[in-house]
Amino acid sequence: MAHFDVVVIGAGIIGSSVSYHLSKAGYNVALVEKGDIANGTSSRCDAVALISDKKPGIDTDIGFRSIQMYKELAKELSFDFEFSSRGSLYVCETDLELEIAREYADNQRKDGYDLQIVDNKELLEIEPKLAKDLVGGIWTEVDSTMNPYLVCFAFVEEAKKYGLKVFTNHEVREIGRGVDGRVETVITDKETIRTEQIVNCAGVWASHIGDMVGIDIPIRPRKGMILVTEKTDRIVHQKVHEFGYMLSKFEDINYQRNVSKLVEDHNIAFTIEPTEADNYLVGGHRAFKGYNVRSENEVIRGIAERATRFLPVLKDVGCIRAYAGVRPWVIDHLPIVSEVEEVPGFYIASGHEGDGISMAPITGKMVTQLIAGEETDFNIDRLKFSRYKASATIS
């Protein structure tokens, strides 16, 4: 029976990062995945690390630190993951949106982050193909892009140099515990692995792993669809998204957009980003549909409608395919990065919603610090699982 210091469950972007950081720190690590590397949400997402889509405070702080870490990882890791600091542009349709955006940017600048408000003229100088009637927006140079598949493989391949053992196509069926409640084994459909510590990085499936140790992890799958354009001449130079994306992501912001019923019903907000292959990823959409990742024609129509409103040139660009994924959503939009006091040796690093790519490096580092008993880079009290203690059921 194989024995490891730590078993990481889930080989998406978070599990890959956690495995890399733990292995580099000297731990004997097993990475267990029911499919293959980057087989779930990380293969069905966009490709950005942003601060401009996050609330001021720890959300932005963690995102910013991860981007700085990505810059170093791009030099350190031997596997090229196509990292680029292109920047991003939020665009506003109305004066009221721009007013909300200005307050948001002011709050971010107070914390030291350089988000610049631009008017209509400046907006079109940055991205000339945008619709001419947009009132302005927010531009930030920090925001970055990469290939999400390649980031996962980059972490895993580098971690193998430090001894990481990868168990792909191993579905976790049970977690064994000792008389004191401490984790002892991870039992897959193929073998039993002994360990003293487990990190649940299963993303939208984290709650299923939680059930195996008798805890209720309040993560729900939140679906999102993306369209992929044909290869085409340069349309935009960076990530461009409507400020309504922020307003649709955070339901507590009270603002009603002037959009069609189709767009409203499917919670669609325009976003586009270039790829290294000269295609464009066009979105976006948020809906609770369980684990359903089938493409939906009505959502495709709504995304196309919203996209051509902001970028009329897209009317003449073909769409070659569409895909959908599910984000690990939690009600306060902050990930769970935490030990579980009731289950000794059990840790959670999940619930990043659409920020898994953005927050992966710092999450991996902080999980390693937690396991080592060290102070984490950030005070992560707000990320602890215990914030759900009132609703958690321990068996």
Number of strands: 18
Q: Rough shape?
A: globular
Radius of gyration: 21 Å
Fraction of helical residues: 25-40%
Largest sheet: 8 strands, mixed
Structural class: alpha/beta
Count of DSSP-assigned helices: 10
Structure report:
The protein has 395 residues and is α/β, with parallel strands linked by helices. Helix content is 30%, strand content 26%. It is built from ten helices and 18 strands. The chain has helices at residues 13-24, 58-76, 95-110, 120-126, 148-161, 206-211, 243-249, 261-265, 297-310, 356-372; strands at 2-9, 29-32, 48-49, 88-92, 116-119, 136-140, 144-145, 165-167, 172-177, 183-188, 192-200, 220-229, 239-242, 268-274, 280-285, 319-329, 336-339, 346-350. The longest helix is centred in the N-terminal third of the chain and has 19 residues, at 58-76. The protein starts with a strand and ends in a 23-residue tail after the last helix.
Please outline the helices and strands.
Layout: E1 2-9, H1 13-24, E2 29-32, E3 48-49, H2 58-76, E4 88-92, H3 95-110, E5 116-119, H4 120-126, E6 136-140, E7 144-145, H5 148-161, E8 165-167, E9 172-177, E10 183-188, E11 192-200, H6 206-211, E12 220-229, E13 239-242, H7 243-249, H8 261-265, E14 268-274, E15 280-285, H9 297-310, E16 319-329, E17 336-339, E18 346-350, H10 356-372
Parallel strand pairs: 1-2, 1-11, 2-8, 4-13, 11-18
Antiparallel strand pairs: 3-7, 4-6, 5-6, 9-10, 10-11, 12-15, 12-16, 13-14, 14-15, 17-18
